[in-house]
Every structure is written in C-alpha cells, then in structure tokens.
Design goal:
CATH class of the largest domain: Alpha Beta
Helix content: 40-55%
Distance between the termini: 52 Å
Strand order of the largest sheet: 2-1-5-4-3
Largest sheet: 5 strands, antiparallel
Oligomer: single chain
CATH superfamily of the largest domain: PAS domain
Number of domains: 3
Order of helices and strands: HEEHEEEHHHEHHEEHEEHEE
Shape: rod-shaped
Structural class: alpha+beta
Length: 447
C-alpha cells in the first residue's frame, strides 16, 4: 500500500524538491561550463607560452611575429609566464613573467613534480593558484621548460558565483517552504470543508451549504455536492411520502380482509361472499407489491435482449379488456382511433402491458364518461395517446406527476405513472402529459 501523505506535506516536498533540483542543475551546468572554458583557455594559453618560450630558447624569436601569449587572456585576465628548471627543480632562468613568482613556483614543484607527460596541473603558491605545464627544454638536456598561468582571479570568480548560487538555493528552499504552506492551506481547507460536508450527507443531513472558494474546481464540486444533497433530500421526502401512502393503501385492504375473515369465522357473514371480498383485496395488495418490485427493477434489466415485435393495437385492446369491468362499473366508455395497418414495436409484452395498463387505469380513475385511445404511426414515429374527459391535471401536480412516490389528489400510491415513464424511456420513447378537455398522456416512440 502506498504511503499516504497530507496535502501540505506533499506540496512542501514537491516544491522543495523541484526548486532544489532546478537550481542544482543550473549550478552544475554553470560549473561544468566554467571549468570547461577555463580548461580550454588555460590549455591554449599554456601551449602558446610553451611554444613562444621554446622559440626564445632557440634564439628564433626575431623570426616570428608577436604571439598572443604576450597579451593578457580576456577571460583569465593574465599573461602566461615561463621559466627553465633543472632536473633537481632549481630555477635556472626566467624567460618571461615575474621572477619571484617563478622562484616560488619552482620551490613548490620540487623534483618529484617535474613530469612532462602531464598536460597541466593546478599548483597553489600561498593564496595564488597557477596552472602549470612542464615540457623538456629544447636546448639543454635534463632541463625543463615550465610554463604557468595565474588563474587566481578566475577561480575566485567561480567560487564567488558558487557562493551566490548556494545562497540562492537556500533562499529558494526557504521560499518554497513558505509558499508550500500557503498553497497547501489553500488546497487543504476547501478539501477539509467539503469532506466535512460529505460526512454530514453520509450521516443523513441533506441541508445544503453556501460554499464558495477561490478555485473554480472546488466551487463546482461544492455546487455538485449541494445538488446531490438536494436530490437526496427530495428522494428522502418522496420516500417518506411513499411509505405514508403505501401504509394508507395497505391499511384499507388489510382491514377489509381481516373484517371479512373474522365475519366468516364467527358466522356473521356468508362465507362465499367474504371469500370473494378477500380475494379481490388480495389481488389489490398483490398488484401494489408487484408495482413496487417492478419499479425497483426497471432500468436494471436489458429490455432489448428479450423483446419481440408486437402490434400495439392488440396490446392496448388487451389492457382495455382487463380493465373493462372497472370502466363498466363507473360507466366509462372507450373510443378507439387505431390505425388500419399494424403498429409494430419491438418491446417485451410485460413491459407494454405495464406501460399502457397504468395509463388506462389512471384515465379510468379520473374520467367522467369516456376514455379515448389513439394508436398510429407518424412519419418514423409511433404515437400512442390516452385521453380522458376528466378535470385534467392541476398546475401544482403537472411538474411532478411522473415523479416516483408523488401522489396527486385522487391518486393511488404514486408509482403507476413513474413506472409508465420508466418503461417508455427504456424503449427510447418519450411520455408527456398535457390538458386538452381532460388529461392527455402521449407516448412517442422513435423509429
């Protein structure tokens, strides 16, 4: 498992690491560049001095033009010097430059350091630094021609720059610590506040919060959480309303069943009549339970996997016949406006019966004298319309009639229309409602 860190620690480590890495890389690149440049300049200067000194030793100086070693190097800031040493390291003569510097350098070299195979080496003489190269004297055997360049100034400059870089790195690290604390606080506080909000939602407190942050992303997250809390609060209220409605709906048939059962047991009621009432009320309870279970399953199945082509005119006629007794009891007549040709839709028969059965049942409940059913094709669409001549849908109920558990005036338990809406959408249909001399429910299936 990866080690978990707080935002403040992670930001601190990231900024310090990034700043340090960048500045160290800059310092390393500077030192490599400076050292390479110094090495190149020193090597060139020493070669030039050695060559010029060799000409001087041979007495050929007058045959050559003035050489560049007689001018100070622009970067190093000094001219090269040359001297002749014997095999014991004693100074024989100074060809150019300061004799005291040459003598001090000869004393520092000693016989052991007279190695002509080395290109050059750095020698410290007191507080001064010299780049020294040694070659065999072209005139006298067992003598050495020593060329040297004073690099004290350029090395001191490089050292000062490194000191400045070190101060910059330490200052940048300190600044990174301060900035990281500020940034971490700016990130951590909104996260902690949103986390506390999420805990409240988890504990069942769905009250929204007025949260506003400087960062757009945190503000958007807070807005999303407020929206979620509002939806959960609404769902909770609908659920409570649903349970209240269901409790009321269950109480009536249960009371009827119990009363008829007791009347039959104690001989107060005729057994066959009581059994008929018990059977009817049991059917109502079964239908209610089936609606609840169906609503919980809707959207979890894959309807397309088990569909079949059905003529919706036949499905509507079957739903009407199943509810014909209730319509006849209330004196409701059905009028049909079906297309002459079959209206085919790939749909599962159980889903189609749920969809149209709930809408027809709802129409019968509110109709005064008649319910009209239309089923036809409209270009590439299938149109089914179920209308009643009742009082219509109130403006207060209209926005909520398809909400789960919402029960309008005269409604049952608030899930019939929600089931119808869910089934229609599961088959890429659109269920809408409006008033036109009564309530009209229109389903449009897209081809």
């Amino acid at each position: 498992m990866r080690r978990q860190l707080r935002i403040r620690t992670r930001v601190l480590l990231t900024l310090i690491g990034l700043t340090t890495a960048i500045l160290l890389a800059v310092g390393l690149a500077f030192n490599l560049t400076v050292r390479g440049t110094i090495r190149s300049r020193v090597t060139s200067q020493l070669a030039s001095v050695s060559e010029s000194a060799s000409f001087d030793r041979r007495g050929m100086r007058g045959q050559h033009q003035k050489r560049s070693d007689e001018r100070p190097d622009r970067l190093i800031g000094s001219m090269g010097s040359a001297a002749v040493l014997d095999k014991d390291g004693s100074l024989i003569s100074v060809l150019r430059g300061d004799e005291d510097a040459a003598r001090s350098l000869a004393d520092s070299l000693g016989i052991i350091d007279l190695d002509s195979s080395v290109k050059y080496k750095m020698i410290s003489v007191g507080e001064d630094q010299y780049a020294v190269s040694i070659s065999d004297d072209p005139v006298q055997k067992d003598y050495y021609l020593v060329s040297f360049v004073d690099v004290t100034a350029i090395l001191a400059f490089a050292s000062r720059v490194n000191t400045v870089l070190l101060v910059i790195i330490l200052s940048a690290i300190l600044l990174s610590v301060l900035l990281s604390r500020h940034f971490a606080k700016a990130f951590a506080e909104p996260v902690q506040e949103l986390s506390a909000f999420a805990h409240e939602i988890g504990d069942g407190n769905f009250n929204t919060r007025d949260l506003c942050f400087r960062d757009v992303e945190f503000t958007e997250l807070a807005s999303s959480m407020n929206h979620m809390a509002s939806q959960l609060q609404e769902a909770k209220q609908k659920q409570e309303t649903f349970f209240q409605n269901v409790s009321h709906e269950l109480r009536t048939p249960l009371t009827s069943i119990r009363g008829n059962a007791e009347g039959s047991v104690y001989g107060i009621m005729e057994s066959q009549s009581a059994a008929r009432v018990i059977l009817e009320e049991s059917d109502k309870l079964g239908g209610m339970v089936e609606d609840i279970l169906y609503l919980s399953r809707i959207g979890k199945e894959a309807p397309k996997a088990v569909t079949e082509p059905l003529d919706l005119r036949d499905v509507l006629s079957l739903c009407v016949s199943e509810q014909h007794a209730e319509a006849e009891r209330k004196g409701i007549l059905f009028r049909f406006g079906f297309a002459k040709e079959p209206v085919i839709l790939n749909i599962r028969e159980q889903d189609a019966q749920r969809l149209f059965g709930n809408l027809i049942s709802n129409a019968i409940r509110y109709a005064k004298a008649e319910v009209r059913l239309d089923c036809l094709t409209d270009n590439d669409h299938i149109l089914v319309r179920i209308a009643d001549d009742g009082p219509g849908i109130t403006s207060e109920d209209m926005p909520h009639i398809f909400d789960r558990f919402y029960k309008g005036e005269g409604g049952k338990h608030g899930i019939g229309l929600a089931i119808a809406k869910s089934v229609a959408e599961a088959y890429h249909g659109e269920l809408t409602a409006f008033n036109d001399g009564g309530a009209v429910f229109e389903i449009r299936f897209h081809g």
